[in-house]
Amino acid sequence: MAAVMPQHDRTPASDGQPYYRPVAGECELFEVAFRHRLPLLLKGPTGCGKTRFVAHMAARLGRPLYTVACHDDLTAADLSGRYLLQGGETRWVDGPLTRAVREGGICYLDEVVEARRDVTVVIHPLTDDRRVLPLERTGELLHAPPEFMLVVSYNPGYQHVLKNLKPSTRQRFVSMEFDFPPPEAEAEIVAAETGLSGERCAALVNLAARLRALKGRDLDEGVSTRLLVYCATLVQAGMRIDEAARYTLVEPLSDDPDVRAALGELVEMTFG
């Protein structure tokens, strides 16, 4: 039975630039790393804009983007490719990393620490001055063109002893730390994404700040900018803001009834 290739997104540059609001010179750093053929590591909490940032920059630079959501079962073969049975014949099929190298695109490995250890083995030769991808099964040695770029990301808050990046891997990348945008910028982002008024978006961002303050105590993770956009979308569609907050800023954060009740009280105090 043929193996299933990993799901990934290929975002062509012709689609235009996805909306992204720069915060602290991250676009300039990305462009410099791209021009000088340097791999890039993004660190930051879930839903703070890492994936949108990479999509924006790929379109801005006019390069095809291959995004791979890493997981426990992701192997090096899933990235590089494998032989598959197609139409009664066995044919080699490139994986997303190989396609990015061949096309001179950007390969983005999201949450790379979730992948199996052999994934780092296959990306190491692409992160130094060799910039090569060996395909042992086909006997090819692909030299990455100048336009190829490798970008990886992970959430340091979820790291533990069995899932982290070895120092020998981290030190192969230019590293950039992401966090949630400053309140005014985050309100601007939510308003731009949803069309909700700036005043109401500012109120949602204020609530998010209070909920994020609970991280490490009652919550494992704070409210993401993505969830704020979801909430504002529901409000813009006509839902009451307290109801929208319950569905997007309370229920997704915890399964514990007591924690959800406490979060609900915070929402009521904010919007009641």
Automatic annotation (TrEMBL):
Protein name stated in the entry: Nitric oxide reductase activation protein NorQ
Gene field: norQ [H]
Family affiliation: Belongs to the CbbQ/NirQ/NorQ/GpvN family.
Keyword Iron-sulfur: no
Domain CbbQ/NirQ/NorQ C-terminal intervals: 186-268
The ATPase dynein-related AAA domain, residue ranges: 39-173
Keywords noted in UniProt: ATP-binding, Nucleotide-binding
An MF annotation (GO) of this entry: ATP binding
Family matches, as Gene3D superfamilies: P-loop containing nucleotide triphosphate hydrolases (3.40.50.300)
